[in-house]
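Run log, item B.
One chain of 367 residues. Sequence copied directly from the ordering sheet:
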Amino acid sequence: MKLGTLLLRNAVIGLTQLEGALRNQVLYGGRLGTNLVELGFIDLELLSGYLAELSGLPVATPSLLDAAELQLLERLGADDAHRLRAVPLAYLPDGSAAVALVEPTNDDIVAAVAERIGGQVTPYIVPELRALYYLEKHYGQPRRPRFVRPGGGDTDPELGAERRRSQPPGGIAMPPALTLEPRRKRPSGPPELGPRPSVAVSYETACERIDAAPHRERIADVFSEYARGRFDALAIFLIRDGNAIGWRGCVAAPASLASPRTPIEELSLPLGGASSLQSAHDTAQTFAGPAPATAHPTETRLWTALGTNEPGGIVVVPIMVKQRVVNLVYAHTLSGLPPPQLVDELTELGARAQAAYLRLIRQARGA
């Protein structure tokens, strides 16, 4: 039985609440339980109990997580702990190690943890949000802004206050029920471009891949593939609580797309003042041109993270769910303004991503 089915059967949530959490999961990622907690439909303790019922495993309580043994934490190591979403707890009398896992029924993950700690693992279940908090607490690697919960809850003030400062209280907002709105077309037809550098995929192929994307990560992949040979940098943002939260980013290199200097997932830019991101968000229309503010502080933070110089031109495409912007796709060219044809193509890919989200949410509801 799935978590949503169990919660519905026990009248913990209603169908509308489940559908809202599934929408958020498609749009913003994270596990279903994470989205239910973020929306305020259940709390972490209730979620822990139902996850334990589903898995048949004991719960890693906050007291157990607080008392995690340093030797075990060091044996697993920060990188593997974050990658596997595992928090070692303590050695048990039978010689095995109790380990809190977000996916304790995944045999590959359990085996990987066992190999790294050099012994048998006794899995405990832990909700995603709580696991990420304790991974930050024990290993010192900050959570991605996507998983920092505004408004408190399972968040330590010493760790989360600075990152929550620009976010309003009251939790995560749920996007409205989904309907597909037509996008306004640019008034002028695009001229033909001159010779282009080598590109990863054709525009037509990018359209087809977004139309057939099986999940949200594939949509982001296609934007990165399309950017190669067309733009010098690209970044995709999640829009939540007045912040642009980094999701995916890439920069051009001589023969491929390299990684940004700072992981884009660690970036959170407040939407305020004059910026290309703010303009695209507020108008719900594609922004194309130089950075609108003289000092361009928002863009400068982004350029620093990407490790690029100030560009000659910027394109920011909003991806809409009904009348709410859920993503901003930022791209720039270093020498001059992007050709109008590229602006139109990126805008159309944004419209196709909107339709893909709608399709994925319908599939999630029927799963």
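Observations after the first pass:
- The longest helix spans residues 340-366.
- The chain has a mean pLDDT of 86.
Flagged for discussion on Thursday.
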